[in-house]
Amino acid sequence: MPIEKQPKTREPMWHEWDDKAQKKGIHHTVYTVAGDHYTGDWSNNKKNGKGTQFWKKSGTIYDGDWKDNKRHGFGTLSVPVKNGYRKVYSGGWKNGMRHGYGTNFYSPTEYYEGEWYASKRSGWGRMYFEDGSIYEGEWFNDLRNGEGMLRLASGNRYEGCWKDDLKHGTGKFYYLDKGQLYEGTWRNDIPKCGNMVDYARNEASHPTQYQLPENKLQNPEAVIREAEEKLEEDETD
């Protein structure tokens, strides 16, 4: 009985050519017509995995993780300067935006380290300002919001509530250079009602000439409480 051979099935040639044209695995540098180039991992014809992207127009470089052509995972963004490159951001990314924990350098002496959401400072973080002051606390929508402490270069500090980058709510301001402490309520960065007392005068660098006079109100707490209630009413009106 003769042996019958089944003909081999063969994919159309264009299938093979298309498969070879796909970017997948580790590639050498791939250029665009604009002069941008990427070196790294590919999958499904997209940047996936580890890789380095260079943008010719700005000279910016991103080195880190990718997912479906977007910065996703951990990576570092750098910009060109006179003598090389300066790191701008190093940390987490999600869908091309700063996300999770990371450090952003606004200048050589001003930077933020903490949590991000959709490329905005949100969550807990610490900001070092050029004037030497440091803020540590909560952020929302790229502004100081919630509980936080601002320590000035002079050593004086504020501990309390913030709203849209301003002191707002209850808080304490330590005037350590003068040896005084204010505790009370703030509105839009202005102390509205509270109590000022002498504090660590013997450690102050420039204490006031005289101590604060004694508060002789029969019930100072009730007076402050009434003033705070008035502030709350004014805000709700």
Describe the structure.
There is one protein chain. The protein is mainly beta and 237 residues long. It has two helices and 15 strands. The chain has a 15-stranded antiparallel sheet with strand order 1-2-3-4-5-6-7-8-9-10-11-12-13-14-15, covered by helices on one side. A hairpin with a 2-residue loop joins strand 12 (157-163) and strand 13 (166-175). The longest helix has 17 residues, at 220-236.
Instruction: Summarize the amount of helix as a percent range.
Output: 10-25%
Question: Can you tell me the overall shape?
Answer: elongated
Number of strands: 15
Oligomer: single chain
Instruction: Specify the biggest β-sheet.
Output: 15 strands, antiparallel
Q: Which whole number gives the mean pLDDT?
A: 90
- Spatial ordering of strands, largest sheet: 1-2-3-4-5-6-7-8-9-10-11-12-13-14-15
Features:
single chain, 237 residues, mainly beta, 15-stranded antiparallel beta sheet, 11% helix, 55% strand
Record the SSE blueprint.
Blueprint: H1 13-21, E1 25-31, E2 37-43, E3 46-54, E4 61-67, E5 70-81, E6 84-94, E7 97-107, E8 110-117, E9 120-128, E10 134-140, E11 143-151, E12 157-163, E13 166-175, E14 180-187, E15 190-198, H2 220-236
Antiparallel strand pairs: 1-2, 2-3, 3-4, 4-5, 5-6, 6-7, 7-8, 8-9, 9-10, 10-11, 11-12, 12-13, 13-14, 14-15
